[in-house]
Write a structure and sequence with these properties.
Blueprint (H helix, E strand, L loop, with lengths): L5 E5 L2 E5 L8 H4 L11 E6 L2 E6 L9 H8 L15 H17 L11 E3 L5 E3 L8 H11 L12 E9 L2 E11 L6 E8 L2 H17 L7 H8 L13 H16 L9 H14 L2 H20 L38 H15 L2 H13 L3 H6 L5 E2 L4 E4 L2 E5 L2 E5 L7 E4 L2 H11 L19 H8 L1 H7 L9 H12 L4 H8 L4 H4 L7 H18 L8 E2 L4 E2 L1
Antiparallel strand pairs: 1-2, 2-4, 3-4, 5-6, 7-8, 8-9, 10-11, 11-14, 12-13, 15-16
Length: 548
């Protein structure tokens, strides 16, 4: 007596689950041919499910489903097999069998069961070839493959055995654990060629159970598993896109196949050498910054003791340089030489751009030390001509999804002085405007960006014609800070004007020019002349007592 657990009819397809031992192959249960069975039924055994499907009798009108199935294999139409059955009918039965197998509850969401072929070409499941129930298949897949990793914090049971075979001694290693949620006993096993390989594999699984990460996984897999965790501390509107592009287009193609634990400063230096030969300075900097953030996460995960990207070799040239000379040692080398050169640059920007806006932008950048995104974010209400101050509150720049306006880079407001050469420009830009209107806009009322200034004025050709090859728009900010430092502004005040968080960054602008060095020599000589005769005579120390 066969106990039927469930019976569901779906589009003529009846599935019944019962004792697997009570079922036999269709050919043996219903006869050697489907036409010999009652009602021309074909029964297939799929992982303990009996699947029955009525086949259309020969000579009757064919089922539309059969017609569509047969059209998939037109080359077999009209042919007969050894039993006299037309290929049309057999092809329809084969399609029905495939549909029965693919649509069964056993194979939903799982790999298809292994199928054997009966005398009539019908695919039938075979227990010996993998036709097993879902639970058995899932357990065998987890145990037999080496892809499973132990859950975090579980206790592992390790077993390593040496086995003699025709090819020598192999080492069979098995690691098992109890799943903390299901309480099922799970594990992985693998055969290794040496005892050292087996121990290394076991240590790798032990590290995964201890830290939740696999020390032997490639960098590309580690980055994929990190998701956006490496980018949580950066600005998603501006910095995320160039960093992600550097990680995706340069870091992973160069280093993604290597295990995280193999990352060294030497490997990273050689990768940077390749990037510098092919990409510009900004691109290489963004790529290195993304790599540093990813390896910081590897240090926190215990995969690395120290971030090797931070130990990379210092370089004077980062990326391709348009200057034939050595890379500048300080931002002072990016600054304009004098005020006369600035005046020529403003005039050429107005002439080549065809609008006064471009000259005003250059003037503001070179006299306030603002970033161009901060100039774009200025509003009329931020300018106080009576007090002679400009308050920087926000920045506007092209970001993800369009223009973005947010706090300044230092996330703090800062006041800037209005010098006399700039006052006339600000008076003209603020007259008869609302306080919330943008202070500076393009010729058509749009936001000014570094790209729009470059394209409108033909910046590269402009600076080359003026003998300023290599000058970038950000060099105008360096110009203002350099001139302020030369004017004697103290370091802490210059830091506030620049909006720097680290005074060491600001101190780079304090490198004295040659005249300041000469002035130091004059002052030192004057002191020496006044104090020298009254001071004790210098004594020469040799090997022995003091001589003098």
């Amino acid at each position: 007596m066969r106990a039927v657990v469930s019976s569901v009819s779906r589009n003529g397809l009846t599935t019944r689950k019962g004792d697997e031992g009570n079922y036999r192959r269709a050919g043996r249960r219903r006869g050697d041919h489907p036409s010999a069975s009652p009602n021309n039924q074909v029964i297939h055994l799929v992982g303990g499910w009996a699947v029955e499907r009525e086949c259309c009798p020969l000579g009757e009108a064919e089922n539309p489903d059969h017609r569509s199935m047969r059209e998939e294999a037109p080359d077999t139409e009209g042919k007969q097999d050894d039993h006299g059955t037309t290929a049309d009918h057999r092809g329809a039965c084969e399609a029905d069998a495939r549909q029965s197998v693919d649509g069964s509850a056993v194979t939903a969401g799982r790999r298809r069961p292994s199928l054997s072929t009966c005398r009539h070409g019908l695919p039938l499941p075979d227990k010996r070839r993998g036709g097993m129930d879902r639970g058995e298949r899932s357990r065998q897949h987890r145990v037999m493959t080496g892809e499973s990793m132990p859950p975090l914090g579980v206790r592992l049971t390790v077993d390593v055995q040496a086995r003699e075979g025709a090819r020598g001694t192999t080492y069979y290693a098995r690691v098992r654990w109890t799943h903390p949620v299901t309480h099922h006993r799970e594990g992985v096993k693998r055969t290794h060629g040496s005892l050292e390989e087996a121990r290394a594999w076991v240590e790798r699984l032990e590290g995964a159970a201890r830290t939740g990460v696999d020390a032997g996984e490639p960098l590309a897999d580690y980055v994929a598993r990190l998701g956006d965790r490496w980018a949580r501390g950066i600005d998603p509107a501006s910095t995320l896109d160039p960093y992600s592009a550097g990680l995706r287009k340069r870091v992973l193609p160069a280093l993604g196949h290597l295990p995280v634990s193999m990352m060294t400063a030497g490997l990273i230096d050689r990768a940077i050498d390749q990037w510098e030969a092919a990409y510009g300075r900004s691109t290489v900097k963004n790529t290195i910054a993304a790599l540093v953030l990813v390896l910081d996460e590897a240090v926190r995960d215990g995969l690395l003791v120290r971030n090797p990207a931070k130990d990379r070799a210092r370089r004077r040239i980062v990326g391709r340089s348009v200057l034939p000379m050595a890379a500048p040692e300080s931002p002072r080398d990016f600054a304009l030489p004098d005020v006369r050169t600035l005046s020529r640059l403003v005039e050429e920007a107005v002439q080549r751009g065809g609008h006064q806006t471009w000259g005003d932008c250059v003037m503001i950048l070179a006299t306030t030390a603002l970033r161009i995104s901060e100039v774009a974010g200025l509003q009329v209400g931020d300018v106080d001509l009576l007090r002679g101050l400009v308050t920087v509150r926000r920045q506007t720049y092209p970001g993800r999804g369009g223009l973005a306006t947010k706090e300044t880079k230092g996330r703090r407001r800062r006041p800037l002085p209005i010098i006399e050469p700039l006052r006339a420009t600000l008076e003209r830009l603020t007259v008869a405007k609302a306080r919330d209107a943008r202070l500076l806009v393009g010729p058509r009322g749009g936001v000014i960006t570094t790209a729009s200034l470059r394209d409108a004025t033909g910046w590269d050709e402009l600076v080359n014609d003026l003998g300023l090859a290599g000058l970038v728009r950000h060099g105008l900010r360096h110009t203002a800070l350099t001139w302020m430092a030369d004017a004697g502004v103290e370091l802490h005040l210059l830091q506030r004007v620049a909006g720097h968080q680290d005074p060491a960054v600001t101190s780079r602008y304090l490198h004295p020019d040659h005249q300041a060095v000469l002035d130091v020599g004059v002052a030192y000589s004057r002191w020496w002349a006044q104090s020298g005769p009254n001071s004790s005579a210098l004594r020469l120390v040799e090997d022995g007592p003091v001589a003098g």
